[in-house]
């Protein structure tokens, strides 16, 4: 091998090394690494069904607001209605049940109407402020309303204790005691999860990262 061939090979290697370095710097400074990671994550999270993939985005739009005046108003309204109606007809022979799907269907036009007619006015409460109409009614608000209605749709097993205590034992329970009894039965799971002994197993367990 001659000296000219050796020098030619070194020139080619230096050129390739310079091109690779230039590409890596360009790859880093243009934030393509993050974009490539997000693209791979989006591809994994994409639904295999074409109908779902066409209408449900697999990326998060941070500009959308979910905790708005509309979502809390509509969500609390349906929560109160569902809990009263379902509990009232629970002891009937043919009970009338309002599911979360009905709320999901009815809350969409209500949200659109509120977005159309509510003024874009800010209300201040101490240090916080919120807008009555922050913009168009979005998917996150609709989802939050559905989640709130779904919590009211499921009945409480502690209510059976109160009913049996009144019907079979002919005794009445104080309203405050009954309310706190219902609340305590619903949040006992959160209390167990927050205990020091179970926190390492239920919350900080690396084997179950989805928890």
From TrEMBL:
Q: Which UniProt keywords apply?
A: Membrane, Peptide transport, Protein transport, Transmembrane, Transmembrane helix, Transport
Q: Does the keyword Oxidoreductase apply?
A: no
Pfam families per UniProt: OPT
Q: What is its main location?
A: membrane
Q: Name one GO molecular function term.
A: oligopeptide transmembrane transporter activity
Which parts pass through the membrane?
72-90, 176-198
Q: Which InterPro entries match?
A: Oligpept_transpt, OPT
How does this chain sit within the bilayer? Multi-pass membrane protein
Entry-linked NCBIfam families? OPT_sfam
This protein's name: Oligopeptide transporter
**What does the entry give for GO biological process?**
protein transport
Q: Give the UniProt entry's GO cellular component terms.
A: membrane
This protein's species is: Didymodactylos carnosus
Q: Where does it localize?
A: Membrane
